[in-house]
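JOB MANIFEST
job_type = single_chain_structure
chain_count = 1
residues = 99
[input]
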Amino acid sequence: MKKTVNFYEFSQWFEKNRPNNFTRVGLRELFDYLEQLEEDCGKEINFDPIALCCEYTEYDNIAELHLEYDSEDYPDIDSLYDHTQVIPVGLEGFIIQQF
């Protein structure tokens, strides 16, 4: 049994249950990315918000990323593209798939 989730339902779940995981803009970018991934792969993705919280992390900027990842290995956002999926959010922010 599957239920199609629209952006409103997607964002409401996160805002109610995990309000600190993603910004509103980040939620929109993640939702759009996941919909495009479904289209590209031809396979539906199950809405598992806890898994998404574990698999993806939003950062405000590269300096925030450097609190968790080595700045020598990843000096800028371009260096991340070789290691993981990067979803731009706003001017400096981004979401990465954990690696």
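[summary]
The mean pLDDT is 96.
Residues 7-97 form one domain.
exit_status = 0
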